[in-house]
Amino acid sequence: MTADPTDVFDEISEYDSTALFKPKVVSLVVSNSEERGPNLMTASWWMLAGYNPFRYLLAVSHKTLTYELIEESGEFVLAAPSTGMIDALTLSGMVSGRDIDKIEHLDLETVPGRDVDVPLLADATGNIECSVMESFEFMDCTYYFGEVENAYVTAGGMDGRLLSPDADVLAYMGSDWGEEETKTKYRYYADITAESIKRFPGDGVVDSLPPELREQYSE
């Protein structure tokens, strides 16, 4: 056994630790208000949070317009951006909806939600309609449990129960300064192709279990 983790690993900052769990799909959160209209926000702080009812957990800073709109309506949409929506991902994480109508500025086409009064993004890989079932506050954020009302994927976007490479989802790698002088960071994303997806059956590792466990998990 080594004396210190750095004998095996390179130490990184708490901020760089997020790179360990990428690529991931960063959501575009759509919210809406009868008075203000729809708004967009880039969100990395979301996760699957349960199956019955099926729900997602979304963290929203109290500083954002999105927080105000979700508090008002109790609804939101999680949109999975396509690679063609990288500008939307960038702008929606930088500029407040209090200063500009991001959907109009980006010329994004929308589709009315079926069971929520929040529009879907027509060019997204998919959209999930959510209604707030519960929430809690921690520090300067509210965490919303959004029950899934309806979910949609781009036409032909599923391969069985898997997202098809043809769905063109934006698998976000993160941001960093490039070699050239630039006012903003470069955004990086992975190009997922059919060739890059590997299939792994679990039989081998299950067969390595002790006999009593192997029988239990082979059924």
Automatic annotation (TrEMBL):
<feature type="domain" description="Flavin reductase like">
    <location>
        <begin position="20"/>
        <end position="161"/>
    </location>
</feature>
<dbReference type="InterPro" id="IPR052174">
    <property type="entry name" value="Flavoredoxin"/>
</dbReference>
<keyword id="KW-0285">Flavoprotein</keyword>
<protein>
    <submittedName>
        <fullName>Flavin reductase domain protein FMN-binding</fullName>
    </submittedName>
</protein>
<dbReference type="GO" id="GO:0010181">
    <property type="term" value="F:FMN binding"/>
</dbReference>
<dbReference type="Pfam" id="PF01613">
    <property type="entry name" value="Flavin_Reduct"/>
</dbReference>
<dbReference type="InterPro" id="IPR012349">
    <property type="entry name" value="Split_barrel_FMN-bd"/>
</dbReference>
<dbReference type="InterPro" id="IPR002563">
    <property type="entry name" value="Flavin_Rdtase-like_dom"/>
</dbReference>
<comment type="similarity">
    <text>Belongs to the flavoredoxin family.</text>
</comment>
